[in-house]
C-alpha cells in the first residue's frame, strides 16, 4: 500500500497535508534523513519546525528529560520525527507523545524508515522484492540500517541474505534468531569475492567511526571491504549496489556513473517513501 502510494505521489503529490506540521527533533547528526523528511512534508503541502542539533541547541543542555521535551514538542506538531544516539529512545518517546512519533534512528538500534525506503528501492530497481538474494557488507554490528532491513525482508518470500563482515562486526544474534524463526535463509562470510557474482543486491555499509571507543579500534576495520568498478564486473546483469550513505571509501567513485550504482537513486526514493508514510499517518 505504501509503495503504491509512493508511486502515485511521484506523479501527483497534491497538497494532502496542507495545514499539518512536522517537527524534526534530531539529537544526532543527519543530512539525508532529516532533509528528506522535511522535503517530503513540504512536497505534501505541510509545514516543518526543526532542530538539527538538539543535543546542544535545545533544553536538553539545561537538563530537560527526553520525555518532557517530547511532551512539549508533540503539542506543537501533528507528527514528530526523532533521532537519538541511544537505543530505545524512540520507544520511550512514543509512550509520552500526544501525536504519532517516527523513529529516525536510535543509536545502533533501529532505523525503520531507512528500511522502508530500502525495500522501495529494491522494488523500483528489480520490480519485485520476493526472491531477492542480498549481500549486506561492512559494519553489521553497529549498522542500524541493516538490522531494520533484515527485519522487513523477513516479511517476503524466497529471501536469501549473505552477511559479510569481520568477526567482531558481525550481525547481532537477535537478528539471526529472528531470521531463523521466520525461515529466512542466511549465511555469514568474511570475504565478498566468492559471493558477489551470485547476489541481486549488494547493500554496502560504512564502518561507523562514531560507534567505536577509540580511533585505533576504528582503524583496525577500515579499508577491507571496498567496491570498485573492476571488482564488480562479475555481478549479474541487473544486480544493483545500494548504500544508506554517507559513504567513506567503501564504494569507489568510479562506480557512480554505472547503471548498477543505485545509491543516489535510493536517496531520491527515500523522499517518496517518506511522503507516503507521512500521508498515511497524518491524513
Sequence-ordered SSE layout with sheet pairings:
Elements: H1 2-11, E1 21-26, H2 32-43, E2 47-51, H3 54-57, H4 66-73, E3 79-84, H5 89-96, E4 101-106, H6 112-126, E5 133-137, H7 144-153, E6 160-164, H8 173-181, E7 185-189, E8 201-204, H9 215-219, E9 240-242, H10 263-282
Parallel strand pairs: 1-2, 1-3, 3-4, 5-6, 5-8, 6-7, 8-9
Report on this structure.
It is a single chain. The chain has 283 residues and is α/β, with parallel strands linked by helices. It has 2 domains: 2-109 and 270-282, 3-Layer(aba) Sandwich (Rossmann fold), CATH 3.40.50.1370; 112-267, Rossmann fold (3-Layer(aba) Sandwich). It is 36% helix and 16% strand. It is built from 10 helices and 9 strands. It has helices at 2-11, 32-43, 54-57, 66-73, 89-96, 112-126, 144-153, 173-181, 215-219, 263-282; strands at 21-26, 47-51, 79-84, 101-106, 133-137, 160-164, 185-189, 201-204, 240-242. Strands 7-6-5-8-9 form a 5-stranded parallel beta sheet. A 4-stranded parallel beta sheet has the order 2-1-3-4, with helices on both faces. Helix 9 links the parallel strand 8 and strand 9 (240-242). Helix 2 (32-43) packs across helix 10 (263-282) and helix 4 (66-73) packs across helix 5. The two termini are 14 Å apart.
Amino acid at each position: 500500500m505504501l509503495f503504491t502510494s509512493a508511486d502515485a505521489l511521484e506523479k501527483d503529490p497534491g497538497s494532502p497535508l496542507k495545514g499539518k506540521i512536522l517537527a524534526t527533533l534530531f539529537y544526532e547528526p543527519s543530512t539525508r534523513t532529516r532533509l528528506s523528511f522535511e522535503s517530503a512534508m513540504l512536497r505534501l503541502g505541510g509545514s516543518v519546525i526543526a532542530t538539527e542539533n538538539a543535543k546542544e541547541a535545545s533544553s536538553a543542555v539545561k537538563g530537560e528529560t527526553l520525555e518532557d521535551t517530547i511532551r512539549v514538542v508533540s503539542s506543537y506538531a501533528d507528527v514528530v520525527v526523532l533521532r537519538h544516539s541511544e537505543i530505545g529512545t524512540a520507544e520511550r518517546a512514543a509512550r509520552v507523545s500526544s501525536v504519532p512519533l517516527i523513529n529516525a534512528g536510535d543509536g545502533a538500534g533501529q532505523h525503520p524508515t531507512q528500511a522502508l525506503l530500502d525495500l522501495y528501492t529494491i522494488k523500483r530497481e528489480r520490480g519485485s522484492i520476493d526472491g531477492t538474494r542480498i549481500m549486506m557488507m561492512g559494519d553489521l554490528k553497529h549498522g542500524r540500517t541493516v538490522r531494520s532491513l533484515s527485519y522487513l525482508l523477513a516479511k517476503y518470500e524466497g529471501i536469501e541474505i549473505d552477511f559479510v563482515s569481520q568477526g567482531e562486526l558481525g550481525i547481532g544474534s537477535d537478528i539471526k534468531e529472528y531470521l531463523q524463526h521466520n525461515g529466512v535463509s542466511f549465511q555469514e562470510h568474511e570475504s565478498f569475492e566468492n559471493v558477489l557474482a551470485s547476489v541481486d543486491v549488494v547493500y554496502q555499509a560504512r564502518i561507523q567511526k562514531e560507534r567505536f571507543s577509540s580511533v585505533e579500534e576504528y582503524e583496525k576495520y577500515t579499508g577491507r571491504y571496498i567496491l570498485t568498478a573492476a571488482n564488480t564486473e562479475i555481478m549479474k546483469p541487473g544486480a544493483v549496489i545500494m548504500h544508506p550513505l554517507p559513504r567513506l571509501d567503501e564504494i569507489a567513485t568510479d562506480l557512480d556513473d554505472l547503471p548498477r550504482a543505485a545509491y543516489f537513486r535510493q536517496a531520491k526514493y527515500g523522499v517518496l517513501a517518506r511522503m507516503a508514510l507521512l500521508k498515511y499517518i497524518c491524513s
